[in-house]
Amino acid sequence: MTEWEVFGVIVALIGFVIAIGTPILKLNTSITKLIARISALDENIDELTERNRKSHERIWEHNDKQDEKLNNHETRIAILEKKEEGK
Question: Is the model's pTM score more than 0.70?
């Protein structure tokens, strides 16, 4: 092998490494960014779930209060109706 053939093989190998290494490096960078975004998304979903749970608790508490008021009104109406029937 002559010096130029060795030089050509080395240049070809360097070109091959660059041709393969560049996309792999870009892919690795993209994967790292995606992992960071997925982690942030996971945290956001956890926060949303917690806020959703608290919101549902408030809704059910309000619903229970309304049920108590409704039952109180129904009882008062029933008492008034019985008084009217007794007259």
Answer: no
